[in-house]
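Narrative summary of target 7.
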Amino acid sequence: MIFRLAHSEARQRACDAIAQAPENYVVTIKPPTRSLDQNAALWALLTEFSERLEWPVNGAMVRMTPEEWKDVLTAAFRQETARLAMGLNGGVVMLGSRTSKMDKRTFSELLDFAQSVAAERIV
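Modeled conformation, tokenized:
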């Protein structure tokens, strides 16, 4: 069960569920993740990047997919501190952040960052 602690009744239901839970069950309290509106805004922006900009990939200027732009922008937002692993066939795999795991505040900061990059690059 997931409870959104939006009001006192929801909090009480969560407490009741905890009191009735079997032994060894686990409870996690965390901030909410990104909203659907935030997600939609980011994907609209990523689509603009993919339609308007070319970027160097393997030494050639290409148009990247929105998903690839998400990887590039998320890495830049994280100060490009992502870890690199050797691929199974000798290539390189970036071990990056998952935006789906970001809380609303962090995702909002990512969206602001992406919008500022878009403004700088006239996207």
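The chain has four helices and four strands.
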